[in-house]
Amino acid sequence: MEVHQTAKSPTSDPAVIELELGLVDIFLSLCRFEWQAGYQELATALFQAEIEYGLLCPCLFLSEQSKQRLFEHFWNGDGARVGEEGALGWSTWLEKEEENRQQVMKEETADENDKGGWTGWSEPLSKQKEINLEKTSINLENVADNDVDVDVEDLEDKLETKDTEQEEDTEALMKMLGIDVNAEANNEVKDTSIWTRWSEEESSRDCNQWMPFHTKSVGPSHMDESPDKQLDEQLLGVILFEDVSEYLFSLSSGEARISLLFHFIDFFGGKIPEWMCTNNSSWTEKILSLEAVPDFLSEKLRRVNDVLTKTQTSSCGFSLEVLLGNAHDASRRIDMMKFLRNAILLCLTAFPRNHILEEAVLVAEDMFLTKMNSCSCSVTPCRGLAKGLLKNDRQDLLLCGVYARREAIFGNIDHARRVFDMALSSIESLPADLQLNAPLIYFWYAETELSNSSGNSSESLKRAIHILSCLGSGVSYNPFKCQPSSPQLLRAHQGFKERIRMLRTTWARGIINDSSTALICSAALFEELTTGWVAAVEVLDHAFSMVLPEKRSQSHQLEFLFNYYLRILQKHHKQTRLSKFLESISLGLQIYPSSPELFTALVEISHLYTVPTKLRSILDDFSNKKPSVMVWLFAVSYELIRGGSQHRIHGLFERALSNDRLRHSVLLWRCYIAYEIDIASNPSAARRVFFRAIHACPWSKKLWLDGFLKLKSVLSAKEMSDLQEVMRDKELNVRTDIYEILLQDDVGP
């Protein structure tokens, strides 16, 4: 089946769309909560189940109850789920199941017909075979009604029997280790190093155990682990239908369906282009719920770090990434990229020609094949995948652009140019609706040329002007041969003005898409290259005037446009008055107070042209007027990199965490604890902060483990034992029993 969708027709009712988007946000909060509490397998299974149920479901007119019964048959079966190798999607899997059932029935009918004649001497069918034939003829929906998962019951019975048989041996072994079974839990382990090793093992397992197991696949498979231990871990990783059934829901709006998929990609660390405004409630919740510094924020903070360290005589600063580094994350990220690659490829059948998904899958392929180290590869890793996708759909114009940009990132600019030229030369032969995406390809191509540092910068500039002049003048595209003539440039100027004038009506109604935004950016870039940056800024100012002020704060396209506006000012900062730049950033932060791009630009420029006191005053002003996790992270990062005073940094953390909303930010608490331990070298203060943190954010298992890993010098064994007991009382998922660590010592190396 090419496209998987529900039988219910897509809705365009704004009320329904808003309701379903809110439902997706609630579901995302649930998955995030389960993940942070240590139930990673459940969070992953919830996403798998909802994507199969909501996006890849069969086109059947079913009630919600019947649909769930049918889905139970799929979930409890042995078919691969979305993200796993060989996954087909629920709809296709159901079709193949039906085909197999029909084939079995035909074969059995043929066997009966082949017998023919007098059958008096034939032995009657056994009772078991009659039962099997009867079961085979039942339709899939009835199978879903009566499907019983026997394997789970068998495994649980075996495990329970085994536990009973070994109970006496376990108690005897504990006595041999010097552990009094009847003593209180607090007195069992008196060595803090044991608890430190326990926390390291627990953290490692949290990183490695995030994929749920299928019931029928449970069983030892690795020779380097004991079968009993592996079986226990796999049983805990089995997510039954009953675990996910209460949280399944159908989606009828395209906006909610694609939102679910974008959130899924972002949740598992995929790199996805900007698709959501930073004023969106989903973005706010995402930033507030962070436990570590994500990739998109790391890139911005590294830019700030590079600018600040250039002017420092000594490298006395630190970064948030160093404070919160995790050695286990790299291997998990590689597996997640493979998981995402598989999932997005499957979902592209439901959302064909979506350039955001296509870029996400190519990036995931690159990161998986290069083991998260793209610098180690000269040939574009995703080339094979991209060519395969283009072979399946040769009219996918935006896929050509996405693929060409990946080639350029890996330094293959000539290959990228050939792909871009092929795409632009074929535009006129495409259907009219696909031709509307042309401005995106032109803009991407021009930006790629200007960012190409390996070739001749003068030639790249001429190429970019040629590309943009073709878009502006509306002539058929021809590959670059020479710089455009003056009449061609004049026609392009007039063409851009006319096309922007035609956008005024649609933009005034709030109808803004990626293609029209790319057209505005292309016009501004063309003016910057041919006339000057002042003319480019005028184009963007004119575009902003076409939109009602209240629309600007909720559109991610307009936020992208404003960021592009600031990049032009920043590029020409030597010719720009500082007051104009700061005024523009101030205006932007009033509209987008949680934008990492704006805070990055603020720190970069202010550091060059103002004294530190002025920048601190600006950051303090924004933190008081519109407090957010983002402003505090940049304020703290600035002080850490510059080696600011402890009094100042303490004040920043305390002011941030005194806010009723921000006190629930796990990331801020973890940064505060790490600062006290690693920079201020004050373990006692870190201990006090830690207990405040777990009181404010008791659901974060990572925060609890920080206490074991970072505070081992100030926490007693009794306190660590009590902490673990409280973790269990709070129903955090504790994967490692302390006796496993003790047994390692008993067995020896």
From TrEMBL:
Major location category of this protein: nucleus
Record key words, sorted: Nucleus
Compartments, record wording: Nucleus
Cellular component GO terms held in the UniProt record: nucleus
Highest taxon, organism lineage: Eukaryota
Record-linked Gene3D superfamilies: Tetratricopeptide repeat domain
SMART domains xrefs: HAT (SM00386)
GO biological process: RNA processing
Keyword Transferase applies: no
Family the UniProt entry places it in: Belongs to the NRDE2 family.
Name of the featured protein: Protein NRDE2-like
